[in-house]
Specification:
22% strand, alpha/beta, 257 residues, 33% helix
């Protein structure tokens, strides 16, 4: 495939592969793999904006079982010359060097909220979105613990037979409490906080055209001002939504297998 034919940049987030609350986890993974295979002929960049895996922890010499088809699809894209960039979310926090070294995936730590990117001459701000707006103290406390390198090393000393079931059980419990099994909704307070952050970013960069985040599980595309747009990517639990950028235009779409 010639470089000239690779003109599209794709964005997606919040797939939550492996989540215990997803009834058909194999079918869930196959749907994502089908999407990745479908973009292999025209993708130049693929940005995964966090929570692609519902839980992941890389130990020094071993990695968790599963996701073989998904990792294979990423490897095929990378081998074809597609730039694959994976942003750490609040579920797949513990991405270290395995995917970077084995596949060639770029890993971006979003502990500071996100990063600026220029794609085909257009200014973007990309992040997972979990730090947009004021968060509960309990959430920020836990987030600080999960990102602490020393505590990560201590955690790695616990046998996976204990940590993995605990992590999946916690994730499933939090999803039930938050109502994620129904069509998710962005509360007015959360939406206002996200919009304030987007306006702030646009004020800091007059050339900024797109602010793209995940985390909130809703698909949203709205203007920030007359030259910048806010895009929330949705999720792959209720719907399979993603964004594609080509010819200086971005479109929010839904993949149908």
């Amino acid at each position: 495939m010639s470089e000239a034919s690779r003109t599209r940049t794709y964005f997606l987030s919040d797939v939550h592969l492996g989540a215990s609350y997803i009834a058909d986890r194999r079918g869930h993974e196959k749907r994502l793999v089908a999407f990745l295979d479908s973009i292999s002929h025209d993708a130049s960049n693929l940005f995964l904006l966090g929570d692609i895996l519902d839980y992941w922890f890389e130990y020094k010499t071993v990695v968790p079982r599963g996701y073989v088809r998904f990792f294979g699809a990423l490897a095929r894209l990378a081998d074809c010359g597609v730039r694959v960039v994976w942003f750490i979310g609040n579920h797949d926090i513990w991405l270290f060097d395995y995917l970077r070294d084995e596949i060639g995936t770029e890993i971006v730590d979003t502990n500071r909220g996100g990063i600026s990117q220029i794609i085909d001459g257009v200014h973007f701000f990309l992040g997972h979105g979990d730090t947009f707006g004021r968060q509960p103290r309990s959430y920020m406390f836990l987030r600080g613990i999960f990102h602490n390198r020393f505590l990560q090393r201590l955690y790695s000393g616990i046998h996976p037979r204990w940590t993995i079931p605990f992590a999946h059980g916690w994730s499933s419990h939090s999803r039930k409490g938050a109502g994620y099994f129904a069509e998710p909704k962005l509360t007015a307070r959360a939406r206002a906080a996200v919009e304030v952050k987007a306006r702030q970013l646009s004020a800091e960069d007059s050339l900024l055209r797109y602010v793209i985040i995940g985390h909130h599980h809703v698909a949203l595309d709205e203007p920030v001002n007359d030259h910048c747009r806010l895009v929330i990517l949705g999720n792959w639990i209720n719907r399979s939504t993603y964004a594609v950028f080509e010819n200086n235009e971005l479109e929010l779409k839904e993949f149908e297998l």
